[in-house]
Design the sequence.
């Protein structure tokens, strides 16, 4: 799908109870004023389903309120929503950025899937330039794309998962399908708009 192939057979945690129903990460009810905005690079459905199964299997259930995701910007002021939609819409005219899940990333208290995508990193830099002066310290750093599948665990638990997954994890090539704009509301995400990449597919 869109240049991706089905991910390899990494056990997502057979026999374990998976936390969070499919749509429980979405904020409902009236939109909360003042909620910060976040921007994602949207994964294709097959890669998203695979990564989210890993997250649901290995993320502490009481802390897992979101689905698997690749965050580009974590907290932008809501006052720039219209401008941000324009910027993302302009960049979405380009071809889908090629990427691949290349291995595991060790976090302080968890594990992530490392995503390699030079074109996505370049797009992130262009957005950051347009949003200069509005970024948090976290969002000014060079992008290291990843999908967190485990967090807030003891270091030994993180190392154990990495030892379990690493031997079977094969590179997973794919293309990002678009930008996602969301509002962050008390730990949940409210979808605002998905802007699909519209440029000619480069293979």
Sequence:
């Amino acid at each position: 799908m869109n240049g991706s192939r089905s991910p390899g057979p990494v056990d997502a945690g057979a026999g374990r109870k998976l936390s969070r129903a499919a749509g429980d990460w979405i904020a409902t009810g009236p939109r909360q004023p003042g909620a910060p905005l976040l921007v994602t690079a949207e994964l294709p459905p097959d890669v998203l389903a695979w990564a989210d199964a890993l997250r649901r299997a290995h993320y502490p259930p009481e802390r897992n309120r979101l689905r698997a995701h690749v965050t580009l910007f974590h907290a932008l002021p809501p006052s720039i929503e219209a401008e941000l939609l324009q910027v993302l819409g302009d960049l979405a005219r380009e071809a889908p950025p090629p990427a691949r899940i290349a291995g595991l990333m060790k976090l302080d208290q968890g594990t992530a899937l490392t995503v390699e995508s030079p074109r996505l990193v370049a797009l992130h830099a262009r957005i950051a330039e347009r949003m200069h002066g509005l970024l948090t310290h976290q969002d000014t750093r060079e992008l290291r794309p990843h999908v967190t599948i485990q967090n807030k665990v003891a270091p030994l638990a993180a190392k154990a998962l990495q030892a379990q997954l690493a031997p079977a994890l094969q590179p997973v090539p794919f293309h990002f399908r678009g930008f996602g704009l969301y509002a962050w509301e008390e730990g949940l995400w409210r979808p605002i708009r998905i802007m699909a990449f519209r440029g000619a597919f480069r293979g």
